[in-house]
Amino acid sequence: MAKPKIVKFRFPESLEEMPLGPSAVAGILTEPNSGWRVQRPVLDHSKCSKCLVCWVLCPEGVIDKSKGDLEIDMNYCKGCGLCAHECPKEAIKMVREGEDEQ
Ligand code: SF4
Ligand code: SF4
Description:
By secondary structure, the chain is mostly beta strands. The chain has one domain (5-96): Alpha-Beta Plaits (2-Layer Sandwich), CATH 3.30.70.20. Helices cover 10% and strands 18% of the residues. It has helices at residues 53-57, 82-86, and strands at 5-6, 28-29, 39-43, 63-64, 71-72, 92-96. It has a two-stranded parallel ribbon with strand order 1-2. The mean pLDDT is 89. Bound molecules: iron/sulfur cluster (2 copies). One iron/sulfur cluster binds next to helix 2.
């Protein structure tokens, strides 16, 4: 399924640009991840056994397995922590946004 496009928000500059009806256009995000993620997953590839449990369970479908090592698309990951909670190898840990990985 196609993901919403990330389109930077700008205020309307004329009456014609004001939205009619709903105030938000469907199919876009004005910021990556809507800007509300407080934690993000960090994956340690040296611990990962590629069992794909996280890939199966991620509710957003943002874990990519097509390039060998798993990659998490941070533009769309919502930081729910399910992948870290369920990883049998403890290869994923959650860190607060803005804090360095330890
Ligand atoms: S659940 Fe853990 S070990 Fe399994 S693929 Fe994901 S990160 Fe790797
Ligand atoms: S934190 Fe949640 S949304 Fe992000 S990759 Fe893990 S399971 Fe998916």
